Amino acid sequence: MFYRPEEGHGLPHNPFNAIVTPRPIGWISTRGADGRDNLAPYSFFNAVAYVPPQVMFASTSTKPDRGDTKDSVANIRDTGVFVVNIVEYAARDAMNVTSGALAADEDEFVAAGLEKAEAQVINCPYVANAPAALECKLTQIVDLPGAANKLVLGEVVGVHMRDDCLVDGIFDVTTFRPLSRLGYRDYSVVENLFSLKRPGE
């Protein structure tokens, strides 16, 4: 099968998200200029550089009470900071709660029953029990083609790692089983690892 996206695929559901998988989930926490906290998952997320460490996520829709974007991007645009929380399998239901379209004045931490902690370098909350959390300062927001597509890039200025996830000096993802996004309504969990040496190593 071949299709041109502008002409449609003719399938019951868009296959694009199912093709580009698995995708890590950036559980983005922000604090608005008004002091209200927000938490939302984004599966268009990844690390993009080592030195300095940098991450990105993209928001692709709007909310009626936020105009041209959603709460996360609006808050980051106002404050210049955010936290990326890593999602473990045990937090899948709480993460799903925070994906709902709550009003801008509603706190997803409260709705999902999640404990907050305060970031150390920036003014922002994070998920207290997350396996890891990356405190970030905004470097740029890029308007992408499309009505509401915005790419957010940030520099990581603080890193939290849960103590039980460190094994012999290694951040061991099997201790918490990170969640990843597939297509449609599907998710996966990382449970099995293998290693490959690069040529010449």
Automatic annotation (TrEMBL):
- InterPro entries tied to this protein: Flavin_Rdtase-like_dom, Split_barrel_FMN-bd
Q: Where is the Flavin reductase like domain?
A: 18-173
Report the transmembrane regions from the record. Answer: none
Where do the coiled-coil regions begin and end?
none
Q: Could you tell me one molecular function GO term of this UniProt entry?
A: oxidoreductase activity, acting on the CH-NH group of donors, NAD or NADP as acceptor
| Protein name as annotated | Flavin reductase
Species the sequence originates in: Actibacterium mucosum KCTC 23349
